[in-house]
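Hey all, sorry for the wall of text incoming. These are the two entities for the joint prediction.
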Amino acid sequence: MKFIVCSLGLLGVAAAGTAFAQPVLPSEVAFDEYGAVSASLTGKAGDAASGEVVVVERGQGNCLACHRITALDEFPFHGEVGPPLDGAGSRWSEAELRGLVADAKMTFEGTIMPSFYKNSGYVRPGDGYTGDAAKGELEPILGAQDVENVVAFLMTLKDE
Amino acid sequence: MTASLYGAVLLAALAAGAAYADEDADLVVNGEIEMTVRAPAPDHVEGLSEIMSGWLFRSDETQAVQMDDFDNPGMIFVDAGRETFNAEIGADGESCASCHEGPETLADVRPTYPKWDPERETVQTVEMQVNECVTERMNLPEWKYTGDDMVNMTALLASAARGKPVDVAIDGPAQSTWEQGKEMYYTRYGQLELSCANCHEDNYGNNIRADHLSQGQINGFPTYRLKNAKLNAVQSRFKGCIRDTRAETFSPGSAEFVALELYVASRGNGLSVEGPSVRN
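and here's what came out:
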């Protein structure tokens, strides 16, 4: 076991150095002291149109569960648990938004907002929404490229 | 999607947005049972100043369905419970009625449970108490915790207590169970890391997507939900709420859910027993 973990760690380091880098692992995301993450998790740019889908879909980011986004008014039922995200792309830098989506608790201590790119530290994690215990290693709620796509979408939410 | 269908969907969405919740309404059932739907929070509830029935957070239409027993689909199950109450189903032909004259004589049950049972030295829910009678006094196999017989019987016992204030004891021998339930209430379960309090204490009155959050009070249980068109037991609701945090949930009847039920019930001390209530 120890040997495998060790060599996986080495692999990660080796891969990060090459052009076709593996996504940064959830446990290895580099947050600065304010919770921002400067480098892309995949080394690739995000795609705003794909990010919009993640923001809307209930089985994915479901950000609309808690946030109002006027640009997405065509989709009914925006939540009121978090602040409206209109203008988020003017209020925050790309690095700050990446940190917020990956793990908002690094920016706002104790926030109710879920951590979307994290895979440990949970109390009784489940197997999706089945109510059963999680099997094997947990996947983060969103993949690394999903996070990048959501960040790209948020960057389009500029003040008028 | 055709244009007119699209229009209809939009309209429905608008209506759902506009229709929710007259939070200032008063609840009188059948023009005679006056319900206390808001009350000062008990001292042991630190995070709220006022406690509010879930009825207040429902749409005008849903509120109206609970105001008249002829409209309330939950009353059908009360009748079914009453039939079972009088039926001679026991191994030696006993019925509930052979020991308890009528459900009215059990009107103090719903408001005071979960409750410490000195003989069994544990906190018992209404379901556990009913199963004690079913297995030990009628010599029958136990009823499924959230099965039809059980939910119907809890509906009958709630209906017999409608309008009485919830008044569960949290001190004495029940205290450690209550503490356990309280800890659960504030635990952020699952991959979404959400506690009961995150939704029902910090955000009641707010929408979470299409759902209008209430305080998650249990004075209205069992509840008839228009969504699944059946009567729902309180611990089934707990199970669903924890599952929705992407967590491994607990089972109805588990020691954990008994503790949680005692704690959540105590947050409603002072509200009226409303079961069977109507929710969406």
